[in-house]
Amino acid sequence: MTLGDPLTDPAHDPAQDAARLTGVVPPLVTPLTPELDVDTASLARLIDHQLTGGVDGVFVLGTSGEGTFLTDEQRQVVLETTVAEVAGQVPVLAGVIDTSTARSGAHLSAALKAGVDGLVATAPFYAATHPAEIERHFVRLASLAGDTPLYAYDIPPRAGVKLPASLMIELGQRRVIAGVKDSSGQEASLRRLVLDRRDAGLSGFAIMTGSEVTVDSSLAFGVDGVVPGLGNVDPAGYVRLYDAVAAGDLGAARAEQDRLIRLFEIIDVADRNRMGASSAALGAFKAGLYLLGVIACPVTAYPSIPLDEAEIAAVRPLLDRAGLH
């Protein structure tokens, strides 16, 4: 975690600012063997790839990490391997995403036992939820988390509901959640959340974007950082982008964002007649890492469909064009 810009309000709390999550925090994929076991050696290389790239944190067992597809035993391997490999160099955030509060709470307890620095939860899903039930969910998880920060993950296509901004701000004021990762793709809503935070004088509340392609503009209007799936492949690129915005060099930031937008075209190589969007994107990230020699196998967890050899080969020229070898 790096120091966030202090908000100019009477309730400004420097201690809260110092703890605010900022910068580049990629949501790590989970490397698997051909037999679909967690490939701990590849995971260690992936973590080194991130740390060498200068990231400010790592997030495991999220959407890119296939957290909801893994067994509890596999999840524990990911947690323990990541905490050991990171060794305190940057914060480790863990997804505790599941259909119910009880199941998320069990994941939370396991993550705390492994020694993570932060927790990330969506609203409960499958059953339709009311804002009052979402509030109960986060309050209960926060009570289980104790002093470990809990972040809300706003991803309507997966959770089936958009997290209400008013509720997120209220939960932030009550110190139930420490911030929000916004993967809604709704830039106007994200910008309003930044304004709502300012108007509420909510110092220390982190707002992170999950978008790979609008990072420069989001940072410019006040978002604290980015959690980019493409950051698995090119963490250093997102660090350069973040640093350029922080330095006020908007030309350099735009050039880096433009390069990353072109690199993001790797998610379009898969034949969408035979797989869904999630398989296409995750398969592309793993293919890129495989071609770069970071992971040993690009297989994805069931029921995702992995890229075939021709699709993996099609990722190579896009890596080359982006200057990744």
Please sum up the structure shown.
The protein is an alpha/beta fold and 325 residues long. 46% of the residues lie in helices and 9% in strands.
CATH architecture: Alpha-Beta Barrel
User: Could you give me the name of the CATH homologous superfamily?
Assistant: Aldolase class I
CATH class: Alpha Beta
Number of helices: 13
Low-confidence blocks of residues: 1-18
- The residue-averaged pLDDT reads 93
Shape: globular
Distance between the termini: 29 Å
Broad structural category? alpha/beta
Region (Disordered): 1-22
Pfam families: DHDPS
InterPro entries: Aldolase_TIM, DapA-like, Schiff_base-form_aldolases_AS
Protein name: 4-hydroxy-tetrahydrodipicolinate synthase
Which key features would you list for this structure?
325 residues; alpha/beta; TIM Barrel; 8 strands; 46% helix; disordered N terminus
What does this structure look like?
The protein has 325 residues and is of the alpha/beta class. It has a single domain, classed as Aldolase class I (TIM Barrel). The chain has 13 helices and eight strands. An eight-stranded parallel β-sheet has the order 1-8-7-6-5-4-3-2. The longest helix has 15 residues, at 72-86. Residues 1-18 have low confidence and may be disordered. Belongs to the DapA family.
